[in-house]
Each structure stands twice: as structure tokens, then as C-alpha cells.
Amino acid sequence: MQDHSDYTVSIRYDRRLYLQDIAGSKAHAAMLAKQGIIEKEDADAIIDGLSAVQGEIERGDFPWDPALEDLHMNIERRLTDLIGPAGARLHTGRSRNDQIALDMRLYTRGAIDETVAGLRSVQRALVGLAERHVDVLMPGYTHLQRAQPVLFAHHMLAYFEMLERDVGRFADCAARMDVLPLGSGALAGVPYPTDRNAVASALEFSAISPNSMDAVADRDFLAEFHSAAAIAMMHISRLSEEIVIWSSREFDFVQLSDEFTTGSSIMPQKRNPDFAEIARGKTGRVYGSLMGILTVLKGLPLTYNRDLQEDKEGFFDTVDTLRSTLSVFADMLPGMRLNTDRLESLAGESYMLATDMADYLVGKGVPFRDAHGVMRRLCQHCEADGLSLSDLPIAEYRRFAPQFDEDVYAITASASVAARDNPGGTAPNRVAEGIARANQILLAAEAP
Ligand code: ARG
Asked: Domains in the chain, please, with CATH?
């Protein structure tokens, strides 16, 4: 028979939790001494010993032993080797079940802070693009059909809003998981006079978990983190899709800087938007890990089950994917150059103004539904004859509706955009408000 002992070993990936594990153990040891559960000298030796262990891990000379299975057993064994019998008192009133529940929460808390900082840096890049191109008109789309002119800045701020909701989702996750599980023991609590609130404040948790069985079984915070991550990556993926389309020769709206494109190995003319494509692809992986954690959890009876060890690799992968993807976008977006002439000439293309012309007829007393019909017939007529609305003589316009006058030629893309001056609209003053609002949010986020 083959040796299967490796199957249950987790140190290859759970060693990433060493800082959290050591911080939790120090707080636990200090509390045990304060409560008179272990001697003060033992707690001091444990705390110093754990610092020595941390140093070894960071220098890369910690003797990781797969036979000890996980990081908790590795650290505890090494501690005892270093400081003697005092090390064996650390695990008093604790189980690996509440220990790992704590480590994962501490790690998730840090991952949320880091992810929010990453989202903020992408938001800053989006606002920067909006500010630098504040006057640029472009065609806005529905159904990927040219619909109405909009400001490019308005389009960028739409993504700012998406990422703002992502920040909110990660903050909600952080607020809900702000509960110390340590002190729950294996599942039923511990028979020592511990002070859970002291450990909670030492580790900066706002509260302690109210039910020991739930505390060791709960990984909801990971499911929440994964779903917030999946939604954030979905937003990045939509932006990636636009960048891929925009940088095609067919659209030719933007050019990415050389660092973020790659040449084809056989077609010398190509500059592929690989970073955007890979981000779009990595989104699938992040979705997969969300499904992974939900599926790991769905069949588990209370309380701790070893299946929970499978919560880690997908989670770390998602944390790393968010980190690298958000960093790429924060650096890639500022270098994206706009083909302003093309954007503006397409924005001014006369069919894009058909809605404005219908609104113009409404202004002259025509009911909107009838005005819509007039413009539909006019557009069909122009299309059939290969004409542009702006070249059509006024006499032709009047064949479709007598209300048309010379002032119909004053309808331009700029006029169309300026007219959409209601809250949330694309008029330049509304977009300026949007930029100011975005900057306020970013400034408030920087405040300590
Ligand atoms: N390596 C385990 C995990 O990640 C730690 C807890 C193990 N507990 C136990 N009773 N075997 O979930």
C-alpha cells in the first residue's frame, strides 16, 4: 500500500497563518496567566518563545514537519522544544477547533483591509481618467448598439460606483465577523475561568461569540468574503471586456500602454490586451472558489468537521487574485490613451441624436409616442438613401413633421449631453458633481 499520510497534511498552505496563529496564542497565554490558570513565568516564557518561533519562520529556518500535520501542532511542538514544559501549558482551555476559527477570522480581517485598499486605488485611477478627459464625448451603448452620446467621464464614474458598492460589501463582511471565537474549546466551552472579553480586546474584536458550537462550525465570513470577491471581480471583468472591445481595430477607442499589451508570436501587427483578458479569465476562478466553500459547508453537521480544512486553498487563491488584479488595474488604467477624435466623431454621428430630435418635437407640442414614430421613419428614410440626418434639407424634415424648423440643426452631441441635466445624468455639471462626490469619498477613506 502507498503511504497516504500526506493526504491530511495542511502545512503546505496553512503556514500562511503563522502571524495570526502566534498573535492568538500570545493573547491566550497572557489571559491564562492573568486569570491564574497558568503561572506568569510560564506565560512570559511562552510569549518570548513564540517570538523566537516567528523569527525562525521569517528567516526560513523553522523546521516544518509534515508528520505534525498542521501549523498549530508545528508551532506548539517547536515552542516546547525551545522553552521546555511551559510550552505544553499553552493549549490549556483551547482546542485547535477554536484556534483555527480565530486564525481564519484574523487573516480575513487583514485580507479585507488589503482588498479595500486595492479597490480604492482602482477607484482613484478611474476618477483620474474622468478628470483628465472631463470634456470628451463618446457614444453610449445599449445592446452594444450606439444609443446616445455621453461623457467618457460619466462612463468611468459608473465603474467608480460599482467598486464603491464592493467596498461596502467587504465592510459589511468585516463588521459581521468581528467576533472572537476563541474560548469555545472543541465545541462545548472550557472548564477554566477564562476571560474571553480580555482576549477579544487584546486581538481587537468588538465582541465574543455567543454560542460555542456555532463559533467552531461557522465559516459564513468566508462565504461572504468569497461572494464580495466574486462580485468585485465581475465588475473588473466587465471593465476588462470593455477594454478588450475598445482596443480592437473595429472600435479603436483606446490604446493601452506597452506594459499591458503583448505582441503575437506570429502576427507582428497585433497588440493583445492580455492583462484585461486574464483578469476576465481569473474571474471564473474566483467564482469557482465561491462555489467551493459553499459546497464544503452545505452538508456539515455541527460542529467542527475536518472538511473545514478545505476552506483554505481557494480562499488564499482568491485573496491573491484580488491583490494582483486590483494592482494591475490601478497601474494599467492611468496609461490608457483615448482616441478622442474617433470617440467624438462617433458621438456626433447624427443617428445618435434621434432621441434628442424626438424630444425637440415634444418641445413643439408633438406627443412623445408620435415624435418617436416620426424619427423612426426619418431614420429609415436616411438609412435607405445613405444620408445623414444632419445633411437632410429642412424641406425633407418637414415632409415627416411640419413642426421641424432650422433650429433642428442646433441639435449636436454636446447639446444632447448638456440637456441631460438631471441628478445622475451625463450633463457636464452633473458629471463634475460626480467627480467631486467621488473625490470626497476617496478623501474620507484616507482619513485615519
Ligand atoms: N488543520 C485544521 C483545519 O484547518 C485545524 C483544526 C483541526 N482540528 C482537529 N480537531 N483536527 O481545520
From this structure: 12-92 (1.10.275.10), 97-345 (1.20.200.10), 349-411 (1.10.40.30)
Residue 219 in contact with ligand 1 by CB distance below 6 A:
no
Q: Which residues of 284-321 are buried (b: 16+ CB within 10 A; e: fewer)?
A: eebbebbebbeebbeeeeebbeeebbebbebbbbbbeb
Ligand 1 centre to CA of 99 (Å) is 9
Which residues in 37-46 are b (16+ Cβ under 10 Å) and which e? Answer: bbeeebbebb
Please indicate whether residue 97, judged by its CB atom, sits closer than 6 Å to ligand 1.
Answer: yes
User: How do residues 420-436 score in pLDDT, each as one tens digit?
Assistant: 999 999 999 999 999 99
Q: Indicate which residue's Cα is closest to atom 2 of ligand 1.
A: 309
Catalytic residue list contains 143: yes
Type of residue numbered 223: A
pLDDT of 395 strictly over 90:
yes
Ligand 1 contact via 96 beta carbon (within 6 Å) = yes
pTM score > 0.85 for this model? yes
Write out pLDDT tens, residues 132-175. Answer: 999 999 999 999 999 999 999 999 999 999 999 999 999 999 99
Single out the catalytic residue among 264, 327, 345, 388. Answer: 264
Evaluate: CB of 308 within 6 angstroms of ligand 1.
Answer: yes
